[in-house]
Design brief:
It contains 7 helices and 14 strands. By secondary structure, it is of the alpha/beta class. A 6-stranded mixed beta sheet has the order 1-14-2-3-4-5. The protein has a 6-stranded mixed beta sheet with strand order 6-7-8-9-13-12. Helix 7 (204-209) links the parallel strand 8 and strand 9 (214-217). It is globular and about 50 Å long.
Length: 290
Amino acid sequence: MKGAIGAGAIAAVYPFVERRRYHLGRRAVPVRPACPPLTILHLSDTHLTAGDRKLARFLGELPKTVGTPDLVLATGDLIEDDGGIEPFLEAVEGLRGRLGRYYVLGSHDYYQSKMKAPTHYLSAGRGPAGARPADVDRLEAGLSSQGWISLGNRTELLQHEGRLGAIRLAGVDDPYLGRHRTDHIARGRDDVAAIGLTHAPDVVSEWILNGYDLVLAGHTHGGQLRFPIVGAAVTNSSLPTALAAGLHRVGAGWLHVSMGLGTSRYSPVRFLARPEATLLELVPAGRASG
């Protein structure tokens, strides 16, 4: 009887513990031979608040852990409320990418967190009804001052080590809020690689149909509550639950949905959905991963 009570107590407490077990995941991404080998640090859903020193410390130590990848890419929900703006900027200040740092925003970067009924999440309810606007201008000004570049509904073309052709980075503003536009994402004939960024993963098919090699997304928190065999119960999006987290082949391209690093303050639990930043290594066909 005592053993059952102890096991029940552990099971009740563990979801509150797991949400603080931050770690760095590593994934190899097989790509076409023409793609250059690239390393990408993918960050998402940090939901940082002023008091979250442990997560801020994890972010601040990433440069020592990963060195300088080719790209640092963030896919939104960087803050939970305005109090998280300065802590987030300070925590990521040391991150560098050889080819730059780029981001798109999520709903929590536009609207401060607000209590919602659990049914809102379970039914994939949309929109920030009644939420206070966040100081997104201050957030973006701070990111810009550090050299981060916004990919909200825009494209950047990067040259890589003198190769003929460009690396295309195309992002959209948050589909969860209906702020996205995709008329700029067509892949160029001479692009050696094409990578898409979005917060909510609902529009992944548009990039895949345009021949992109990799699409990065967040928003789902991996389902946040996952169960053996079943996996994620919900995704809070139109994405199938089987694609709620991790690296998945979609058509001829890949989708990486970040497990995310944070949670909303009103649902501070994770179960079998350990918070993660991810180092992705694009490995062209015919080359072995190092």
